[in-house]
Amino acid sequence: MSDKYKNLKVKELQELLQKSGLPHSGKKEELIERLVKHEQTVDEFASLDDEFGDLGEFDDSKLALDSDIEDPIAPVEDVLEEEIKEETKVELKETTTTPVVKPNSNFKFTPIVFDKTATTETTPVAAPVVEEKKADKPKLPVIPPKVTDDAERALERAKRFGIQLNDTAKKDIRAQRFGIPATSVSPKATSPKAAKSTPVKAASKGIDPEVLKKRAERFGLAKTASEKKNPVVKGKVPVSLDPAEEEKKRKRAERFQQSEDAKKQKTEYHFTLVYKALNIKQKPKKACCQFDPEWCNVKENMKKADGLLEMYTPNDIDILILPEMAFTGYVFKSTEEILPYLEDSETGPSVQWAKKQAIRLQCFVVVGYPQKTDQAYYNSICCVNAQGSVIYTYQKAFLYETDENWAEEGPGFVSLNVNGLGKVGFGICMDLNPYKFKADFQDYEFANYHLQHDTEIIICSMAWLRSKDSMSTIKYWATRLLPLYQEADGGKRTIFAACNRTGLERGSEFAGASCVLEITNENITILDHMNLDTGVIIVQA
């Protein structure tokens, strides 16, 4: 199938991809592969459409139902009696009609009229017999229309995003459309908790369980339910926790022995975002500098940031956060494009700017930039202290599709002790999302990592794309941090500070919505936030 594309130029291939609504960046081989996969997907959808016919356009109004029919399943005797009625009606009508001749014409025709209602001339039928048999008639199972709707939505979603359906997904769609129980789901997994614990879910996502296990080890995530239940491995001696950990576990267990009513108010997606009047002293002042960088215009972007910060002096800010890839722009489609803007972790222009501002403002400065090392390229952030020293360089762990054009995955999430701040964790944009958007949404890899490591301040540099309004973006970030709210010990408090960018860049629009959130086991609180404006917010928390 790919032979017909080999003789086309890259520009022609990109035009074909644009017409199909597909990403059109990459090498020629990648473009051809994308077109071939798209054709295969279209063929699969066509085969599904052929199989199901016009099922998606079906509705009750298209049924030619007679209002006198009371039950779709009738005994053979009743059906025969109805046929006799209809034959009698037609015969009677035909015998009573007379030829009609139009004036000034030799053409004559005989109209035949069909009546729905029975006439007095029809053959009498024993009506009481029908009524007596009604009680014995089997009732048809009613299939909720929602099932068909779900199947249609799944198919439409797959068409819209160009997702290639696997055999399991196709079987599920067929099963839903025709009301057949899905055989791939365990009958025991009827409740959300049971469904979450079944291994079927991981298989349906198409991710090898071994890959999930390795990723969990890499990011220090919680063990699976089966591993928690049976922690003793054959040939290994069980390790006992220290008394402090045991006490923490006991307190957490006691706190979760609450009434059912209280549990209902704290479900997975039920949390409260509230505003809070600040009256906090001797807490670090977090500042987010939100602006709209120009692509590949490093010097001009630095001038913008300098202009927004020039009014501030030492002691005004304790932690200054800038967006992901703040001065270079974000949308790079190949390694060749970004190569001139890659920086090392000590002498690059972004790091030098951070050092200068850190010394001037006597604060920590966090800035995103594209990093080069001897081994690979990374989407990174540097954290510089008030003395102008780089105390840590964090490399993005979960890559977005734009990052995959040039960057490698970082070694994993991190939480470290920083003098003057406490336990600090770093993140970059996509780190908040499920891994490659393939992992289960409720794995909450980033949030669970920081819950387990008792992180006190989470700092995130963002280049988050706009979908709805700013509050929708903030609510989504809060949703991705739910474990820090649901499973936090009493009195535990986590501060989440995210600095995003705004503006348009190569067809991508960014969401703004920089914010500072306070997360406890009672509420997720918005301490301050921005919309699509440019400027600096400072929150003491």
TrEMBL record:
InterPro entries (UniProt xref): C-N_Hydrolase, C-N_Hydrolase_sf, Nta1, SAP_dom, SAP_dom_sf
Ranges where the SAP domain occurs: 5-39
Domain of life: Eukaryota
Region described as Disordered: spans on this chain: 129-148, 183-202, 237-261
GO molecular function, one term: protein-N-terminal asparagine amidohydrolase activity
Annotated ranges, domain CN hydrolase: 284-541
Gene Ontology biological process: protein catabolic process
Pfam families: CN_hydrolase, SAP
Biased composition (Basic and acidic residues): 130-139
Name recorded for this polypeptide: Uncharacterized protein
